[in-house]
Design a protein that fits this description.
The protein is of the alpha+beta class. Helix content is 42%, strand content 23%. The protein has 15 helices and 15 strands. A seven-stranded mixed beta sheet has the order 1-2-3-9-4-8-7, with helices on both faces. A five-stranded mixed beta sheet has the order 11-15-12-14-13, sandwiched between helices. A three-stranded antiparallel beta sheet has the order 6-5-10, with no helix packed on it. β5 and β6 form a beta hairpin. α1 crosses α7, α3 runs parallel beside α8 and α9 crosses α12.
Length: 421
Amino acid sequence: MKKHIFEKVDECLYSEKLSNGINVYLYPTNKTKNFYISISVNYGANILKYKKGKKEVNVIPGSAHFLEHKVMALSENKEISERINSLGSLANAWTNYHGTNYNIFGSINLIENLKLLLDIFYNTDINEKCVNEEKGIIGEEIDMYKDDLNSFMYSELFNNMFHSSYVNNTVVGERSDIEKITAKSLNEIYSDYYVPNNTFIIVTGNFDINEVSNVIHEYMDKLNLKQKKLPKLVKKKEKDSVRISYQEIRRDLNDSRVKYGIKINKKLFDINNDNILRYYLNIILSCNFSASSKLFEKYKNENIVTNMSTGVNIIDDYVVLMISATCDDANVFINNISKDIKTLDLTKNDFERKKKIFLKSYITDFDNIEDIEYNICVSILMENKIDYNEYSTINNMNYNEAIKILKSLEFDNVSVIRTIK
């Protein structure tokens, strides 16, 4: 088992790749009596078509999330569910575009909880009856998602900005998609992607690494699972332009909500590390649009906005810069932001101040085992690696590079979504 040290915080992560290909990450700490265990698979809603041999498989949108429901089917696994409850533990799962995570949080008997989580993941029974019964539950979840205005506007804007990307579909899919999903289609995905060499286990908390490692080894030896060649992802080439530049959605609100998106080809920035590019862009946007920025103060004083926020998303070969606002008159905001977005600036003092905030956040993230697990999991799903020197990576960011990135920004491809009454 390899020992890795996260610099600056001097925290240890132990990693091991088992003979069947599954990767194990153990983070022991005496800071807490609790533990957080997860098993994750590199299969998410971004996979819509794949090829195995000469066969091409078209994936129904929402399948990754639906499969999560059927693997973490505690309402059907009464015995496991009752045992988890008796231990006072909490079992959960989540799916995003890049992967699916199954987890248990608890404080009593980590070893039994670990075995229970592995049982959930590896003893899945997906049949037509249980799939049909689940469709109504997921349909209600889809409706709830659409009722969340912020989430709905995000998904609509991403759909408008891209021609042939996975973000043209939401993670949960549409009701019409869900009706097409069958036990056969889910079992095929499970067989193709839920394999050891596409899976990793993370254990964080107060435990003995040798004991946990031995339990995982013994469990995997009994399963006798083999590595399997993964299918090849099939993707369409994306265009630089946005698909739809403007959309109005009707909502009975006293104010207006606006999301202003800018789509930029990533190659313009000449930075291979997506994480670092994200840091730079977040600093640039924060310095220009946060509550402490001059532009926000101006907009506030002129009654253009009541609040404003920003976000950075990297979607395959593209960066999406997002500005969200609540305002009285959406037209006034859109007209102003369309001009002001082209005059962004960044002082060295502001850059260094924001960089210190990221460095502080990096350190404080190690105070919570759930945050540690999540950060490790997302790093593997998004980057296929863990940066043990991220503190230096952030600290080595420099103002000149930030200015170079700022000057590389292009604002030709814009899409706007707003509410109207």
